[in-house]
Amino acid sequence: VPSPTVADRPENPLSRSAFLLAARGEPGPHTPVWFMRQAGRSLPEYRALREGTTMLESCMRPDLVVEITLQPVRRYGVDAAIFFSDIVLPLKAVGVDLEIQPGVGPVVAAPVRTAADLAAVRPVTPADVAYVTDSVRQLVGELGGTPLIGFAGAPFTVASYLVEGGPSKDHAKTKSLMHADPKLWHALADRLADVAIAYLSVQIEAGASAIQLFDSWAGALSPRDYAEFVQPHSAKVFGALEQYGVPRLHFGVNTGELLGLMSEAGADVVGVDWRVPLDEAVRRITAAGGSPKPVQGNLDPALLFAGWEAIEPQLDRILTEGRSAPGHIFNLGHGVPPNADPEVLHKIVQAVHAKSTR
Ligand code: 1CP
């Protein structure tokens, strides 16, 4: 049970946040909604602001970070903001030579494949990311009663970019390294756990009221490999953050077989993609003997293009299935696609609120 934080003081408007209440498994005014990748290319105001500035440059400019993070909050009335950044930013901040290529994603100039390559990876200090502290402080001031979610990439997902050198469908080099040189793998994953801990601590200390650890690509692993090679490192991250008492969310894609293990890693809220219904997700989380936890999800992002008549019954279904958890945070099963229609997202927020108001 997270210990009381500043958000729990009754005079703080965050104490009534639907998002934070659901994340703690407490009853709230309605089912909260936010969208992964809610800030980004689906918003014309984002595309206009980003013109002429690279992705990583924009992450280092508090004026842009603050405005881009606020854009979807204003437009959609979502119940939480997610800090505008990227999972590779802390690596960039400690000098790893990488860029985010438009239409591709993160690309690493010198992939990490040997023990000597590990020297390039060290945890960020607050001084490395002073612009993150500035941005979070400003945002928390502007957001008032809307909580800010900080985030980091989990060791496996960040390792995949470092080892592969860029986006990968099969994560073959990463999995090979794991099995061929477990000692090097564990050393790398342990370092990346320290990176995530340092980077998330900076965001929480600057005022983020929840954090999400993205292990987007963990679903590529078997439960056996996840348990041996990944879970201990993600558990280290969650364990180190427990002292702050902020809700810790955990998410990955295609993780139906891993939901119990990802929950056991130390998540307070388990993110679920669209492949497993939320009531079944709750069963899988509790099957290993754990207690039921709040869940987040799980509308298939492809349905954003199916028309309102197809979307609305799915909202009803997801809200019903979500009631089997002690708390439900409505979200998509993965990020907002770049060509999504902002009007549809706005309508979803309004409908989820209307249907769930208690
Ligand atoms: O120029 C651009 O607009 C680049 C597109 C973009 C954006 C908007 C990238 C490149 N990253 C981001 C921001 C971002 N990244 C956010 C904040 C925005 C929000 O959520 O509202 C977050 C939370 C992330 C985290 C992130 N980056 C993840 C985890 C979440 C997920 O989608 O699974 C991952 C896997 C990345 C890597 C990444 N960064 C960018 C791309 C295109 C990718 C994926 C590449 C791949 O397929 O491997």
Please give a structural write-up.
It comes from Kribbella flavida (strain DSM 17836 / JCM 10339 / NBRC 14399). Substrate binds at residues 37-41, 86, 161, 216, 334. Pathway: Porphyrin-containing compound metabolism; protoporphyrin-IX biosynthesis; coproporphyrinogen-III from 5-aminolevulinate: step 4/4. With 358 residues, the protein is of the alpha/beta class. The protein has a single domain, classed as TIM Barrel (Alpha-Beta Barrel). It is 45% helix and 11% strand. It is built from 14 helices and nine strands. It has helices at residues 18-23, 44-50, 55-59, 62-76, 89-93, 130-143, 155-164, 172-180, 182-206, 223-241, 259-264, 278-287, 308-322, 342-356; strands at residues 81-82, 98-101, 105-108, 148-153, 210-214, 248-251, 269-271, 295-299, 328-332. The strands form two sheets. The chain has a seven-stranded parallel sheet. The chain has a two-stranded antiparallel sheet with strand order 2-3. Helix 11 links the parallel strand 6 and strand 7 (269-271). Helix 4 (62-76) runs parallel beside helix 6 (130-143). The longest helix is centred in the middle third of the chain and has 25 residues, at 182-206. The radius of gyration is 19 Å and the shape is globular. 49% of the residues are buried. The model has no long low-confidence stretch (mean pLDDT 96).
